[in-house]
Sequence to fold (229 residues):
Amino acid sequence: MKNRYLKLALFASLVSFGSASSAFADTGDIAIGAKASTLGFGGEVTVGLTPSFNVRAGYNGYNYSGSTSQNQINYDYKLSLGSVPVLLDWYPFEHSGWRLSPGVIFNNNKVSATGTSTLVGSTIEINHVPYQISDIGSLTGSVDFDKTVPYLGLGWGNAVGKNAGLSFVFDLGVMFQGTPKVALAASNPTIQNNPAFQTDLNKEIADLKDKTDKFKYYPVLSIGLAYGF
Fold:
């Protein structure tokens, strides 16, 4: 919760900075925009620094619920996307909308899940070993990522360019969010003291981790509209 408020405060500060900067800048040096992307839906503020450099900050978020099966365990999961990107746009070619956009993303993407057996009966298999559901209860798990991560991308569009006004913006890049951190536990605390169960649970976690390792490189594709003042 503290991280959420910190990110929102940072975004508000950047918006305030952009508003203050516009008081000393020519028309077209500040813009606001709305975007849809693989990071969710959100908005951003762009401030022009020089003819070749802009700085952008925004917020993206989205929640999605679904289910999947792994090793005869059915997981009902919730995907929560939340991120605050702070990017520097560099336009290497004069009078061109193409840009390179390195930066940092304050990342709160995560997955939470509850697992139950897909088998008919009173057992659940963990690492292919059957356990009584009455002994396990249910499995609760989460997948989390690094909170401050680098981003590198390219895109098209200059929201504070020479012809400020309504414009189209496009981004394609990669967020390097690190190796996923996978946690899995039984809701019944008694079985947590069983060494055999812990061994099987750790193998189940390792198997899940192998399936989620590909998300250490998270692709970012976004499109949106911006309006320059």
